[in-house]
Specification:
Blueprint lengths: L5 E13 L12 H16 L9 E14 L4 E5 L6 H8 L7 E6 L3 E4 L12 H11 L4 H15 L14 H14 L4 E4 L8 H16 L4 E5 L3 H7 L2 E6 L2 E7 H11 L7 E3 L8 E9 L8 E3 L4 E9 L6 E9 L4 E6 L15 E9 L7 E11 L3 E15 L28 H9 L2
Parallel strand pairs: 3-7, 3-8, 5-6, 6-7, 12-18
Antiparallel strand pairs: 1-2, 1-4, 8-9, 10-11, 11-13, 13-16, 14-15, 14-17, 17-18
Helix pairs in contact: 3-4, 4-5
Length: 436
């Protein structure tokens, strides 16, 4: 049995958070805060006051993370924000030291974690290519052989001799990915940073990562909230929850488990806590079938009613209610606001009271998938009054006659017609052939 190229053994990472002191300011350590606290403490001692005590709290970003990766695999890390994914990648990239545990990595490691990581801002793009190669332990001749490929892939040739501090974030990411992918590390680690690039470049990067793994036998660790990209690119998955590895295995199984684990969002609707300080706020969202019943599951063949309860305490001019729907890849697939109402009702939000709006999503508009609903209330001259991000989750199901889910964002049935030169219907022709 071959040795794994990556072994993560009981890795834990603890951060110490400082609580609020007498001044009410709570934060973790900063240089400015340290000077301020020192002068305040000294002044207090001169006035006979004791040193203020600030409580310390342990925060475990990772707890006993444990998994292995075989050579040539593309592995996706999934988990909600704060699950510990980025901390784990920083430890693997030797940027952060673990509190306990060990990591064994066999080969050169290239990391693309944050915009600007590993680059010197005052150097040009050309100089940074050679700098990164040197950090990876490559000789100048090795870097020179890959130089033209890196420049062509990154599409920044016109700005190659410009200091990278003048690059846009998209240019930065293009060059950083090109360097990391082309300088032949045995292990390539990539965080969500690719989301900065445009769609065409993201697609180009995903293709390159697959080539790196399958064609060149190198190993890729990839973090993304785009489940579609993970599903297409990765062989295996690792799921983290609250700093712990809760599942490893084939990526499709890990994604299904992750989707199920995140369904603690309100499934068929939710009520919102009252906040009297707001001039207007959402009080309730219900997702209804045609018969008025609530559920988390719907058929693509039925309409879906969103019943939105909104309370106006103090009238605000030009207050717009909006809902939008994302699929599980994070793509916004539908956006609607109450200006779709008849003009006779559009001034409802100028009257204090509780108002109930209903918006009907037609049958066959959305495809088979899971969706998350966000509510937003914004006034032109004030800004956001109330925002309920991803406050409700529903699933639409659509099975064809072949018992296969219909792919695609849109679920419409498209009319088909048939004109055939066959003398008899197919079924009759088959029976005739069988009788011969």
């Amino acid at each position: 049995m071959t040795r794994p190229i990556i072994s993560v053994n009981k890795i834990s990472k603890r951060y110490i958070l400082r609580g609020a002191g007498e001044g009410g300011r709570g934060s973790d350590f900063s240089l400015r805060g340290a000077f301020s606290d020192s002068f305040s403490a000294a002044a207090g001692l001169l006035r006979g006051k004791p040193l203020p005590k600030r409580p310390m709290t342990d925060f475990w970003a990772l707890r006993d993370a444990d998994f292995q990766v075989e050579r040539g695999k593309v592995v996706g890390l999934v988990g909600r924000n704060g699950a510990g994914k980025s901390t784990l990648l920083k430890i693997m990239s030797r940027i952060v030291e673990p509190t306990s545990g060990t990591i064994s990595m066999r080969g050169r490691v290239a990391s693309l974690l944050e915009v600007g990581t590993g680059f010197h801002f005052d150097l040009s793009g050309r100089e940074n290519i050679y700098l990164n190669g040197a950090i990876l332990g490559m000789k100048r001749a090795e870097i020179a052989r890959k130089f033209d490929e890196i420049v062509a892939f990154s599409e920044v040739e016109k700005f190659l001799d410009t200091p990278v501090k003048r690059y846009s974030s998209g240019m930065f990411v293009r060059l950083a990915f090109a360097v990391a992918a082309h300088l032949e590390p045995e292990i390539l680690i990539i965080d969500e940073v690719l989301a900065v690039g445009d769609y065409a470049f993201q697609k180009k990067c995903l293709g390159k990562m697959r080539d790196v793994a399958t064609g060149e036998g190198r190993t890729v660790l990839f973090v993304s909230h785009n489940m579609g990209a993970l599903s297409q690119l990765c062989d295996e998955g690792v799921m983290l929850q609250q700093g712990r590895v809760t599942m490893t295995g084939p990526v499709q199984e890990v994604i299904r488990s992750y989707m199920k684990a995140t369904s603690d969002l309100a499934a068929a609707g939710t009520s919102f806590e009252e906040d009297p300080s707001k001039p207007g706020q959402f009080r309730k969202l219900e997702v209804l079938h045609a018969d008025g019943s609530t559920s988390a599951d719907f058929s693509c063949d039925e309409p879906i009613t969103l019943r939105i309860t909104y309370e106006v305490r103090r009238p605000v001019r030009q207050n717009y209610l909006t809902f939008y729907i994302h699929n599980m890849e994070g793509t916004r697939v539908l956006h609607s606001d109450f200006r779709d109402l008849d003009l006779g009702h559009i001034d409802a939000l100028q009257r204090p009271g509780v108002h109930v709006f209903e918006a009907v999503i037609p049958a066959r508009l959305l495809g088979s998938s899971g969706y998350q609903i966000t509510l937003d209330s914004t006034a032109t001259f004030i800004g956001c009054l109330d925002h309920r991000a991803e406050c409700c989750e529903i699933t639409l199901r659509d099975l064809t006659l072949r018992d296969e889910a219909r792919p695609g964002v849109i679920g419409a049935r498209i009319p088909w017609t048939l004109q055939s030169s066959a003398a008899a219907p197919v079924a009759e022709a088959v029976e005739a052939d069988a009788g011969r």
